[in-house]
Every structure is written in C-alpha cells, then in structure tokens.
Amino acid sequence: MQTIAASVYDTIFARRDVRGEFTSEPADAQVLDRILSAAHAAPSVGLSQPWDFIVIEDPDIRRDFWVHVDGERSVFAATLPAERATLFDRLRIEGILDASLGLVVTYDPDRGGPHVLGRHAIADAGLYSVCLAIENLWLAATAEGWGVGWVSFYRERFVRDLLSLPARVRPIAWLCLGPVTHQQAVPDLERQGWRRRVPLPTVVHHNRW
Amino acid sequence: MQTIAASVYDTIFARRDVRGEFTSEPADAQVLDRILSAAHAAPSVGLSQPWDFIVIEDPDIRRDFWVHVDGERSVFAATLPAERATLFDRLRIEGILDASLGLVVTYDPDRGGPHVLGRHAIADAGLYSVCLAIENLWLAATAEGWGVGWVSFYRERFVRDLLSLPARVRPIAWLCLGPVTHQQAVPDLERQGWRRRVPLPTVVHHNRW
After folding, report:
1. Cα separation of A100 and A27, whole Å?
2. 3-class DSSP state for residue A89?
3. pLDDT score, position B159
4. Closest by alpha carbon to B140, among B65, B37, B70, B53?
5. Which of A130, A143, B2, B198 could disulfide-link B8, Cβ–Cβ 3.0 to 4.6 Å?
6. Is the ipTM of this complex over 0.85?
7. Mutation choice for A interface testing from B63, B93, B117 by most A CBs within 10 A
8. A189 with B46: Cβ contact below 8 A
9. Using the beta-carbon criterion (under 8 Å), do B15 and A43 form an inter-chain contact?
10. What is the Cα–Cα distance from A65 to A44, expressed in whole angstroms?
11. Is A155 in the B-facing interface, judged by CB distances under 8 Å?
12. Taking CA atoms, what residue in B is nearest to A74?
C-alpha cells in the first residue's frame, strides 16, 4: 500500500475519543488553524458548508458548561440499573476543563440559500454535513498529536443560551481539543468494561438487509 | 510537519464528491474490506457502533434506485426559479450506474442496548456517529484511489422498501463507490457555477457567536 494510504489508515485506527490524556498546554494557533481548515474542507450537501466553529478559551464559559454536564451525568446515572450505575460511576465522560480548548460545532440551516441541492427530500442532510466536518477535524487533530473528546451530556438549549447562538442555529458537538500525552490503544469504554466493539462482518450485508 | 499529518491533510483536501469520474472497473474485495474497516473504526456515541453497510452489486436494485432518483431530480427542479433551473439542468447529481458499487449506510437506534451512554439528552447523537463513519470511509477510499459520491435525491421510505430494511433502521446515505480516474481539483458545484465555497474565517467565532 502507498505511504499516503498507510498514513490515513494509521490515523483512523489510532484516533480515540479522549477524556483523560489532555496535557492542558496552550494551543498552538497554527495547528488549530490547520485543523479547522481540514474541517472546513469536508463535503456538504449542495456545497452549503452549514457549519460554524466556536473556539472557547473563556474559563467561565467552560466552567458553566462543566457544571451543566455534571448535572446531566446524574440524570443519566439515575436511569441505570444498579450494576450499570456502579460501573458508570467509575467512568470519566469529559475533559472539559483539562483540554486546551473547547470547540463547539454548530449547524445553520439557512446557510446555502433557499434551494440547497440535495436537501429537499432529506431534511437532516445538513446535519450530516456538519458531522463529516467533525470527523475531518478529529482525524487532522489526531495526526497533529492532539486529541478530541466529544461531550454529549448536555441540553442543546443550555449551550444555545451559553454561547448566544441565533435561534435557528443548532449546537451539534462540544469538542474538548488540544495536545495529548498519547492516544489509548483501546477505547475507554471497552477498556473499562462498559461495552465491547463488534466485529466488522456483523454489520456488513450484501444487496439487501 | 510530519509525513503522517501531511498525508492526512493531502487526502482531506483532495477528497471530492464524485459523479463523473468512476471507471466502472470491478471493485477489489480487499480494498473494499479496508475501506469498510476504516468506517467501522469511527467514534460512536457510547461505543454503540450503530451503523450497517449494505454493499450493492445487483444491477436491478441499482437501476430501480436510479429511476427513483431521476424522479426526485424533477421534483427538486420544479421548485427552482427559471435561471437556477437552467443551471441545475446541466448538473450531474449522481454516478449510481457508473460506480463499481453502491454502498448504503444505515442507522440502527437499537444498537448498543437500552442505555446508550451519551444519548439520553441528544437523541440524534446516534445519527451523528453514522456520519463520522461515512467520513472515515470517504477518506480511506480517497487514499486508495477510489471515489465516493453521496446521493441524497431519494425518499427514505423508498430505500427502506428497496433493501428490505427493518422498520427501525434508517438509511442515512447511498454512496456511489469505486475506482476513479482522478479527483477533480475544484468541487463540481463550484466549477459549474452553482455555488462558491466561503472562506474559513467567515465561520470561525471566539467564545460566543
């Protein structure tokens, strides 16, 4: 296999959802710019590029978000049977205050004008584009020696208010972002006994389900 | 920058949403397996891996889908003002019959059991995971000299029926997939005057919107 493909696969397989490995060192502005350029180069429905990136350094905003997430952690814990609740209690679910930066990625349905090519039959196609940008960002960060941790223990309305988002704009991800000591070899949730990955052949079908 | 990062960026910037460049040659099974492994290595909410991959070689299925897409093309065209309709008429929107393979990627909300960690507050988090897998697949394919074209001119119910998907399973993407002659330097929609990309700084914010 050629060098380029090998490097892409290495990065894809090394990438982790990071919680505990952030170094907290200041983020290099040039690295951040390259990573955001990678996100911005993602495919999007009708070339609408419906994403925005909010770089969050303000410690007060991050603290407010952390408090909210901690509350949602308790909400989820209360839904679990006893054995799972005990296991969940030991899991780390975010690195909000340890990562060098927060990065919120949003979806703007008005981007691209009134006739977005490819969205008339599938309203969610714009959301999908934003996620493609997030994965580009995730892989670029990994290749740079940075880590990304996607936090999803929050209510969209809270983040919309916290960051003064326009009513039409939807927060899709709060990402913890910055240099890391290393990427774990095995995903946290598997290493800590929450869930095991399934083998690829179990999810591949031919011609029909 | 290190070689690995340069290769990842090269792939991210070279990647295109392919319509007209498929070679139609038979798909190499080992390459396909590597590309699917890359998709399957994507991050997912609660390690739920809620995706399935349906590899479509059957010419009848592909023909039925093409007819449906052609109908939806007319539906969209009828919504456009005259000038845009004329431009749209010249655009190619799919490579369904020319690509070596079709690949449908689906979302199964039941994957991961009753307590998916990280999904209690954001129901769409599982959809987002499927899109991360699609972008991994897209970049791996690009690095392999293959192309990917995402077709979204279809109704989900049609694809669900065509592929005998269970009622709970949602089709997220029909991808045209296979070797290509080259990746275009500029996205089709920009080259053909449909829409221009916006510069990165217009979508970057600091701390608040």
Report:
1. 6
2. helix
3. 98
4. B37
5. A143
6. yes
7. B117
8. yes
9. yes
10. 29
11. yes
12. B120
Label residue A186 exposed, middle or buried (CB < 10 Å: 0-12, 13-18, 19+): exposed
Residue B187, amino acid: P
DSSP code of residue A118? T
Q: Which residues from A are below 8 Å from B107, CB to CB?
A: none
Q: Verify whether the Cβ–Cβ distance B5 to A143 is below 8 Å.
A: yes
Q: Count CB neighbours of B101 within 10 A.
A: 17
Decide if A66 touches B, using CB distance below 8 A: no
Question: Is the minimum CB–CB distance between A187 and chain B shorter than 8 Å?
Answer: yes
Q: How confident is the model at residue A1 (pLDDT cuts 50, 70, 90)?
A: low
The nearest CA of chain B is from the CA of A47 a distance in Å of 7
Q: Which residue of A has its CA nearest to B46?
A: A189
Distance, in Å, from the CA atom of A160 to the CA atom of A64, rounded to the nearest integer, reads: 13
Q: How far is B135 from chain A (nearest CA, A)?
A: 5
Print pLDDT tens along chain B (209 aa). 578 999 999 999 999 999 999 999 999 999 999 999 999 999 999 999 999 999 999 999 999 999 999 999 999 999 999 999 999 999 999 999 999 999 999 999 999 999 999 999 999 999 999 999 999 999 999 999 999 999 999 999 999 999 999 999 999 999 999 999 999 999 999 999 999 999 999 999 999 99
Cα of A24 to nearest chain B Cα, Å:
18
Over residues A95-109, mean pLDDT: 98
Identify whether the C-beta of residue B117 lies closer than 8 Å to the C-beta of residue A89: no
Centre a 10 Å sphere on the Cβ of residue B75 and count the other Cβ atoms it contains.
12
Residues 29-58 of B with CB under 8 A from A: 33-34, 36-38, 40-43, 45-49, 51-58
Tokens coding A209: 């389900």
Residue B80: what are its φ and ψ, rounded to 5°? -90, 145
- The encoded tokens of residue B100 equal 């070596």
Find where tokens 């993407």 sit: B173
Q: Which of A21, A182, A143, A98 is nearest to B2 (CA)?
A: A143
Q: Do B121 and A153 touch (CB under 8 A)?
A: yes
CB B52 within 8 A of CB B108: yes
